[in-house]
Design a protein that fits this description.
This protein is α/β, with parallel strands linked by helices. The protein has a single domain, classed as Alpha-Beta Barrel (TIM Barrel). It is built from ten helices and eight strands. Helix 8 (164-173) links the parallel strand 6 and strand 7 (179-183). Helix 4 (71-84) runs parallel beside helix 6.
């Protein structure tokens, strides 16, 4: 896979709470120039990005980064994001429900939010750094059963990011229709190549364009 092919799997990301419009613009210009899969941006910037870069594929986050807001609130966030021009949604599960092993409740929330997304892509962030292997496997089953499009490792704001061990675990336990997104652990060209070779369809990072140009990795 050459570098341009790798960039087509990148969700070019800027989710820092202090991101300025100039920073978001730079991200979008890079995404257009390098033909990344999407930009992943804060919900507050969706409408402005959609107006300024109307052909750009916009991804945003919901219930981010902690995941414990009510399902109804997450649904409203999704509706607002789609109205403003987003095409893809990265939602965070209720991690407390996962830790309480209330897996059916988590599955029901994912199913509800996928119905709100409709034809739009829903990626489910399970925040692997906080979960046991049993809990990760349960989330693979929940994401699959609920009909989501992707399982995603991390927010990038937790105590750890994607690991190769988690990607291999996902592959063993997700359904055929579920794709994998790695985030928070891709810090070099070698990491990018490894995660894509391992079966990830998307990589969430702020660094890919930079390190493919030979620059040092930035924080997610």
């Amino acid at each position: 896979m050459n570098r341009q092919e790798m960039l087509q799997h990148i969700d070019h990301t800027l989710l820092k709470p202090y991101a300025k419009w100039e920073d978001i613009q730079t991200l979008c210009v890079e995404a257009v120039e390098y033909k990344t899969a999407s930009v992943c941006i804060p919900p507050a910037y969706i409408a402005r990005v959609h107006e300024t870069f109307p052909k750009l594929n916009i991804c945003t986050v919901v219930g981010f980064p902690l995941g414990y807001s009510a399902t109804e609130a997450k649904a409203m966030e999704i509706m607002a994001a789609l109205r403003d021009g987003a095409n893809e949604i990265d939602m965070v599960v209720n991690i407390s429900d996962v830790k309480n092993h209330d897996y059916q409740k988590v599955e029901e929330e994912i199913r509800t939010l996928k119905a709100v997304c409709g034809k739009h892509i829903l990626k489910v962030i399970i925040e692997t750094c906080y979960l046991t292997e049993e809990e990760k496997i349960a989330m693979c089953h929940a994401v699959t059963a609920a009909g989501a499009d992707y399982i995603k490792t991390s927010t990038g704001f937790g105590t750890g990011g994607a690991t190769m061990e988690d990607i291999h675990l996902f592959q063993k336990h997700i359904g055929e229709h579920v794709k994998i997104k790695a985030a928070g652990g891709v810090k070099s060209v070698e990491d990018l190549e490894a995660f894509l070779s391992a079966g990830c369809d998307r990589i969430g990072t702020s660094s890919a364009v930079g390190f493919l140009k030979g620059e040092a990795a930035k924080e997610y």
